[in-house]
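Q: What would this chain look like folded?
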Amino acid sequence: KARIGGDEACEPSEELRLWMVQLLRGDLATRCAKDHLVAYAPDIISVVVRGLDDPFHEVKKETCRLICDLPTLVGSRGALLEHAETIVKGVVRNMAHPHYKVRVLLVSAVDAVVGMRPSREVVDKLVATILHEATFDKARQVRGRVYECMASWLAIVEEEEKVPLEAGAEVGAGVRAPEPLYAEILLPFYLVGMLDEEREIREVSRQRLEEVCARNAEAGCYPAGPHEDGGEGGNLVRRMVRHHLKHIAIVCKRDSAEWTKNKNLSAARLLRVATEIAGRDMDPYLGSIVPLLCNAIGNENEDIAQHIVRCTHHIGAACDPESWACTLLDTLNNPKSSIPNRANALVVLAGLVHGCSQTGREMGADTLAALASTLASEEIRGAGHYAINNQLLSVITNVLEAFGGGCGPVSRDLYHVLLQLQALRDDDALRSGAVLVTQRLAEACGYESAASFASGHSEDLLRVLCGTCAEWTKDSPDQFVFAALVFNCSAEVLARLYDQVTEVFCSCLSQERDPHVRLETLKVVDRLLEDQDRNGFIRPSSMRFLAEVLLPPAVWQAGKTAASIRFHAIVAIGTFFREDLMSPTELVQVLIDDRYQLLPTIHSSLEEDYYADTRLCSCHTLAALLNCIGTKLTNDQKRLVYPELVKRLDDSSDKVRIQACATLEAFVGCLEPDYCETNTGYILKGILIHMDDTNPEVQEAVCLVVEKLAKVKPGITRGSLHEVREQHRGVAFIDRVLGSM
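A: My prediction, written as structure tokens:
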């Protein structure tokens, strides 16, 4: 003790310090009687403490071996127990030693101390600290030794004790069944080892736990319940875990809230093993476990997240859905829940529902309705966050897998969510996935196709959307749902629902609405008009559609925003005529009816100051109109049209000039041989000057108009060409037209 057991070691030689510990462990201890060594227990402990802190690793290792031999050498457990805390504190200080062999022997030293049955306080405060580090030690030898020791500690059973009898109880009824002395403290640590990185450690840990539970059962620990068989192996383990489940839940909650990765991972592993073993016994604790799952599932560590997902599968497979659904729905419906919190809750919900599908568990009709209603709420399906959208699709996929045909009563709400996902613009994969899941939902509900399914739900959904469309803003999710719904319906369904569809269009296109809503609506209208599988529903009411939907937003109004809206309206009108959605006879009626003001509206767009593209699209639109009406265009209407087109040949944009020529070609197609010579002369006078333009593309475009006009009115065309031939710098295009006549 004087050389190596004092506060400061006097012996500078490492070899001598090692020899002294070996001497104490060897000759001195074996040659002295145990009752004599008891008197020197404090001095031996002083040497042990200094030996553990010795900088020479061989001294540390020999000291650990000495600790392992102390119970045999001293013989008096009581004499050593009073120093148990001191020894364990020395071990705690050295558990970070870089040599794994030292750490293995330190664990063995703790094993010897715990074997002396120290107080639970020592185990809880000091041994547990060692276990927190050792269970995640980088050396598998250390971890293997830790779990081997813990298995033996779990088999230390307290002695039977008497508890006071309650009034009226029978004699002997107060005898409490014995329990493993440290099970409540150690079991959570041991269960973590059943998911160790090393396969051998995992398998051996499970086997040892079954053996320990079998021995404890023989000692009377954890008796079976009144309706439970005695069981073997896994059943015995389940009884042990069930007995300590409350404490396990507390440990999981505590460690998952820590900031260290190892404690978070420990909590995730523990919860996964506990949910796997406990099964339906988890029901009473789900009120605290489900929020824990929601918090832990968002951990950045992938391993932790994977363990939590497996926990949800175990709970979903074993527990009653009524026991976890309410907690999750409260989280989703809480207005204070953030987007990440809701996304995490949806991940947990998807996992739980998937677990239900594995065991065929049914969810009550009211609970399923509440779940579907929550998913379809604007706050959830309209959150617009990728994580939420992705998990919504996963939840609905798993709901269909788990409950199949039972989804019929809630199919409208589920369809509402899927339409929201189909309306996404920047995620093709998610949108395609939503289309496929919609098909599966239709099949689960007994429909032949997604179109027939849409037909069965469109009227109800449109009724809902019509009731809210007046309140839509640029961020309202229902405006995108409406677009998706329209493109899910067949032409026959849209024809039946024409009034409801146009009611939404008219409401969203009214002048007082948010410009963003008006623009989005016009884009939807244009897409619908281009869709040849669906646009046929407009033909029976084409005049109404033109007057009520297309023309009002195309009317000129001041401002750049109004100009943008006007551009999209003109594009939609052009698509309307290009797709032949109005017959020539109906178009004649529209043009002669001053209430429509179709030509004046297009002419005003040809004069657009803000955007050259509006002038360009107006030329396209007028060309489509002229192609539709053909020779039924009246002379008065012709006198209104051609001056506007000739004027466009002086446009600042060559693209507009070239398209104006193409529109003039369509206009010439409306002329007949007896058309007025005077007006034909005016047309030629306005366009021939541009056949000498500096841009060859413009020259070519004008030449094509003149060639076509020459076929209808050859006489005046030939005369006009001869008049300007001498004035043009180049005569190639003039000669080309003359040569074709």
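The radius of gyration is 43 Å.
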